[in-house]
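At this stage, I needed to go through a protein sequence along with its fold in token form, as given directly below:
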Amino acid sequence: MNQPTPPTSSANDLSNDPVRWRILAVLLIAIFMSLMSVSVVNVALASIQDALHASQSDIQWVLSGYALTFGVVLVSAGRAGDLMGRGGIFILGAVIFTLASIAAGLAPDAQWLNGARFVQGVGSGFMNPQAVGMIQQYFRGPERGRAFGFFGTAVGVSVAIGPVIGGLLIQLGGLDIGWRLTFLINVPIGVLIIVLALLWFPRPLIHKPKSLEHKGLSSLDPIGALLLGAGVLAVLYPFVGSNATELVWLLLPAGLLLFYLWARWEQWYTQRGYSPMVDLKIFATSSYRNGSIIMTLYFLGMTSIWVLIPLYVQQDLGFSAFEAGMVGIPSALLSAYSAHWAGQRVNHYGRKIVIGGLALAVFGLFASIGVVFLHEYWGVSIWWLLLSLAFFGLGQGSVVSPNQALTLAEVPLAYAGSSGAIMQTGQRIGTSVGIAVITALVFAVRPHSSWAVAVSAGLLAIALVIVLALLVAVKDLRERRVV
């Protein structure tokens, strides 16, 4: 199979060059920064509302606007990186993200802040698929598993540690300045990323492949990008938008129709001899198909935990934002450790590591339900959650990074960015749908029961979703044995 060469030379030129680890360091810092921006803001919402006199709708869009544009641009940005050079698109994303962080931190009102968050999401959506594509490009064999192990560490820690950092910044800066620091903290990090990328990324950062020279804009598949972007927007909006009415939910079937039209367009586009946005043949590869389903289901449940637990300990137990963030620290540290451990061994154990991680996550969830009930009815210390959630953290690190490596193992390098972005889009949809549905379940149960019962219902729903992911992982393992 013919594959395009990397932006400078062949990918093999860097297979034994220490520069690839410096490239990875830049990518991981960026991933950590962009994903932390999702969770760090959670604990600052009350301060933002008071400082800017924002409505509840405005506050919801502080979270939702970022997630929406992030999800919409992922695949288009991934394909642009595949064709035009991943390094250049990555740096462009970092510049956009950093400037938007400055705008958010200095926002005079809620409308300005939400506009900046939309732009932040675009910058993050530009960076993330390039990171996946560049790991595919510059790492081979067991080293790729290690690289994705570090990637998984960045993902897991960023989600769990965000509320801790947010709580600390609020405490240091006070209610008026603290929330601004949750955005401005990205600025020195973003500048560092841009400088290091310019110093360490191979040259040229942007190139023009022969396919693009001959076919012009058509190689970027603008119609495919528009159809897919509109489909993602239509599916995500009812779940992230505020004050959704019955009419808004009609966007869901419209989104599914747009996905169908996109798939048919990609087939027709390929038959005409053009380079499609996504090679749909990758979905015939069981490892990619199953891995993408596992990741979507896992994120459908996983992210909601770090919404429910802080909500429970603050609303019911009176914890401060900083104390609520502390609950996730052991989980974050163990997630970092297990991701590194799993990344070194994924080539040997394969899907068994993912199965073990999912089983640990389910155990951690049921243990957490037990802690909540023991605290409610027998007065057992709620701080036992640190131990129960630690099991979840161990599982998380053993799921995200190995699954990423196994899912993309058979994907052609020419589509590394867009294929990785498809998987990340599934994560974004899973995250948005999961948070909306599971928090709605908790708030539906709450008027008729205690917080303990309501949050346990939410944790049980998360566990059931992760059990589904576990069943898909077992199915994938069996299919691999048959092959």
The CA atoms of residues 49 and 56 lie 8 Å apart. DSSP finds 17 helices and no strands in the chain. The chain has a mean pLDDT of 85.
